[in-house]
């Protein structure tokens, strides 16, 4: 039977205790499946998980699973978007960007039925970066003259941006942000492209001839903890020691690349006059005011993704799958953020590989279960039922695509 218990969540604070419900099997597995919205689309399994019941902390992750009938055959599109600071940009990106990419790919294929992998990669990169540019351009069209904006009374600015319609949406798309992780496969399943913008992760699992599994990281980690990314920001802003502060851009945001987040991409004037006058505004306007003085020579963030092409023809006869996940899955494991290639990737591929031959298994749910505690029923119960009004874990979305 289910039993109510008390936990400190492993945080070691005797005065901070919360109730949770220890669930027996099969009740525990059933409840996790329900809370994770576990579902499958032919060859793809998905979970999207945020157990906090407070609606103010509902998940800002989004995912899109599509198969497109394009010239020459069916192309596969899988994507996850990890929103931050609000839902608006993640929602807008998930609803708009896939159609843009489909249209761009169709245009390429109509001109050339067998485009090179490099052309497809460039098409994906340009579609994503152009989409991000369009978000900022829409705002600048509202206030094309910076000098006029500087002198405009607050009430006039507010009347333009808080219209409850398209102008308000334009501003919110700039004030919120989202990472982007996209995979595309061609009709032959011989080619895979992965476009990454932000700090989500893509891992390819391939079964070797001896039955063992190989893991390959296909994404880039675009955050301040990555020395290469931090150095890029620093080189672009010489003489600004606080452009990266405590592994965060301007000391404020972890990711170095994302869609949206235009208060890191355009002059501080727009934050002062537009974003801080918007309704609804920032979740923490004080935090924005604390770093806005560091915005001297924008942009500090990029909307240009990294794109990798992978030739799958050699592995076509063996089992192959692709794992896409938001960084919430990484955060479930202590001290392994910087060890994705050495530790987490091989671990996840091994877990999925053990179950990959069973079509009845939701492989994404299998991964989530391990991250929450695996066979430790009490730990998993605690992680999904603890009675808190604030988030105790990050939004976690996992997509597992069976390629071969």
UniProtKB/TrEMBL annotation:
Span of domain PPM-type phosphatase: 43-403
Gene3D superfamilies: PPM-type phosphatase domain
Parts forming coiled coils: none
GO molecular function: protein serine/threonine phosphatase activity
InterPro entries per UniProt: PP2C (IPR015655), PPM-type-like_dom_sf (IPR036457), PPM-type_phosphatase-like_dom (IPR001932)
Protein known as: Phosphatase 2C-like domain-containing protein
Species whose genome carries this gene: Crepidotus variabilis
Lineage of source species: Eukaryota, Fungi, Dikarya, Basidiomycota, Agaricomycotina
């Amino acid at each position: 039977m289910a039993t109510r218990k008390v936990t400190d969540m492993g945080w070691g604070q005797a005065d901070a205790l919360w109730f949770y419900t220890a669930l027996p099997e099969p009740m525990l597995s059933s409840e996790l499946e329900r809370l994770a919205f576990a579902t499958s689309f032919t060859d793809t399994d998905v979970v999207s998980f945020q157990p906090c019941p407070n609606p103010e902390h509902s998940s800002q992750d989004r995912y899109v699973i599509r198969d497109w009938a394009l010239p020459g055959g069916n192309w596969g599109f899988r994507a996850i978007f990890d929103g931050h600071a609000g839902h608006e940009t993640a929602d807008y990106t998930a609803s708009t960007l896939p159609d843009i990419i489909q249209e761009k790919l169709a245009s390429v294929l109509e001109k050339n039925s067998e485009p090179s992998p490099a052309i497809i990669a460039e098409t994906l990169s340009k579609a994503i970066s152009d989409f991000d540019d369009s978000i900022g351009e829409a705002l600048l069209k509202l206030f094309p003259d910076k000098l006029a904006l500087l002198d405009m009374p607050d009430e006039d600015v507010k009347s333009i941006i808080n219209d409850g319609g398209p102008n308000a949406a334009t501003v919110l798309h700039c004030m919120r942000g989202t990472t982007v992780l996209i995979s595309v496969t061609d009709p032959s399943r011989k080619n895979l492209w992965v476009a990454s913008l932000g700090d989500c992760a893509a891992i390819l699992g391939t079964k070797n001839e001896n039955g063992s599994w190989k893991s390959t990281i296909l994404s880039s980690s675009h955050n301040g903890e990555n020395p290469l990314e931090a150095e890029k920001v620093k080189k672009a802003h010489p003489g600004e020691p606080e452009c990266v502060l405590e592994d965060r851009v301007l000391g404020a945001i972890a990711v170095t690349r994302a869609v949206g987040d235009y208060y890191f991409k355009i002059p501080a004037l727009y934050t002062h006059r537009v974003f801080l006058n918007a309704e609804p505004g920032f979740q923490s306007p004080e935090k924005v005011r604390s770093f806005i003085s560091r915005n001297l020579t924008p942009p500090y963030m990029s909307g240009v993704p990294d794109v990798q092409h992978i030739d799958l023809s050699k592995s076509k006869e063996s089992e192959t799958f692709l794992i896409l996940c938001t960084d919430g899955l990484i955060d479930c494991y202590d001290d392994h953020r910087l060890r994705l290639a050495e530790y987490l990737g091989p671990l996840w591929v091994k877990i999925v590989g053990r179950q990959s031959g069973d079509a009845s298994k939701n492989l994404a749910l299998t991964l989530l279960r391990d991250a929450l505690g695996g066979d430790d029923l009490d730990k998993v119960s605690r992680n999904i039922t603890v009675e808190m009004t604030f988030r105790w874990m990050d939004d976690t979305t996992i997509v597992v695509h069976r390629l071969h």
